[in-house]
Amino acid sequence: MKELQDLILPEEGLKLLSPYVGDVDLSKYDLKIPFEQVESSDGNGIKSRYELIKKEAMEQNLTLEDVMKKIAGARGHFMVVGTPEQIADTMQYWYEQGAADGFNIMPPLLPTQLELFVDKVVPILQQRGLAQTEYAAGYFERKVWPGKRLATR
């Protein structure tokens, strides 16, 4: 996670955070202030997400910089960081609680983190019966949409 956060330029990170607070110019703030001191606009912000961000920031005493790095690194999505077992545990928990029936894996650093996920996490999920161990031959499109869908040339 730190590796990713170290790549975030503050001016770009603040631009990514801005829509969540109502397109407020965040560059006027010191990055070290508590996030709760950042004004929000009643305008075009993503209000439901902003409320979640603000609540978490207050509970964890996060600064504007902390929140900016968190949002810029994961683009506002839920991010799991940990050992392969911890990641598999989290995915299993969400699945078993009915909170997810599938996952979009969006590794922030390619190809390294995708390879780590495939090589380390997927085998654990397979051992637990939560991921396929074999895949049927053929085109993905034909598995999802049976029958001929493309025009003959």
TrEMBL record:
GO molecular function: nitrilotriacetate monooxygenase activity
Cytoplasm listed as a keyword: no
Keywords for this protein: Flavoprotein, FMN, Monooxygenase, Oxidoreductase
Acetylation is among the record's keywords: no
Name this protein carries in UniProt: Monooxygenase
Taxonomic source organism: Staphylococcus gallinarum
EC number: 1.14.14.10
InterPro entries given in the database record: Diverse_substr_monoxygenases, Luciferase-like_sf
